[in-house]
Amino acid sequence: MSANGPRRLAVAHRGDPRAAVENTLDAIQRAAVAGPGAIEVDLRRTADGVVVLHHDDDLSRLWAREEALADLTLTQLRTLVPEIPTLAEALAVAAGVPLLLDTGDPAVATAAHAELAGPHGSLAMFCGGAEAMAAVRERDEDITLFLSWYGEQPPSEDVLVAVRPTYFNPEHRFLDAESVAQWHARGLRVSCWTVDDADRRAELLSWGVDAIISNDVAGVVKSCDGV
Predict the structure, then answer these.
(1) How far is residue 9's CA from residue 111's CA, in Å, rounded to a whole number?
(2) Most buried residue, 42, 70, 132, 137, by most Cβ within 10 Å?
(3) Are 52 and 113 in contact (CB under 8 A)?
(4) Contact status, residue 31 vs residue 12, Cβ threshold 8 Å
(5) Within 13 Å, how many C-alpha atoms sit on residue 214's CB side?
(6) Distance between CA 227 and CA 222 in Å, rounded?
(7) What confidence score (pLDDT) does residue 3 get?
(8) How far is CA 219 from CA 12, 176, 181, in A?
């Protein structure tokens, strides 16, 4: 049992990227079937300000095109890669599974937050860097925020005060039993990314980690349900 309750949150990374192209509606729907506690997706904005799901700056890695997503209107993007969904479409197909909206850009974060007032946005959460998460917290005192963190040095007190995160969310290799206990003692839950090895998930869960983000959707659900 974790310091913050018995439920461990299994988070599907970019939908189910092993069964479908990451951050697509197909990936989200396939992930939802496996029963995770949340589905993490990455956010970008088109040239005309529409929030869409995509991780990279450009289309080259997934779609073999060189265009930068931010230079394309939604109509242009849809002509080139119709598989990239809008946030509104993703929220509608998540089948009641909360989406964990990942961005490091404050402007994207606040634009996405504005869309959560619709019928499918009430379960959404956010993760990302301090500036983006602080921008969301300024708008919403109650929403669940994961403060993503990079490196061994912990966030400053100023960052923690500005973000008021629910979860501290570093890369898993920067966690150990002592650090998990320290964050729990401060009243924060602990999440980590991206953990695809079952033995490593078991170790993290034994330390009391509260949420694990993984590409292995069925595996992380099994790991978290088995604690």
Answers:
(1) 26
(2) 132
(3) no
(4) yes
(5) 24
(6) 9
(7) 43
(8) 10, 21, 25
The angle at the Cα of 85, spanning 84 to 89, to the nearest 5 degrees, equals 170
Give the separation between CA 223 and CA 153, rounded to whole angstroms.
28
C-alpha 205/C-alpha 175 separation (Å) is 11
Six-digit token pair at 178? 């002592």
pLDDT at 202: 98
27 with 20: CB under 8 angstroms? yes
Proportion of the chain above pLDDT 90, given as a percent: 93
Sequence-distant (≥ 6) Cβ neighbours of residue 110 within 8 angstroms? 135, 136, 139
Are the CB atoms for 87 and 118 separated by under 8 Å? no
Identify whether the C-beta of residue 208 lies closer than 8 Å to the C-beta of residue 181.
yes
pLDDT in tens, 180-192: 999 999 999 999 9
The DSSP call for residue 82 is T
Mean pLDDT of 49-63: 98
Q: Which helix (H) or strand (E) holds 139?
A: helix 130-139
DSSP secondary structure letter of residue 37: S
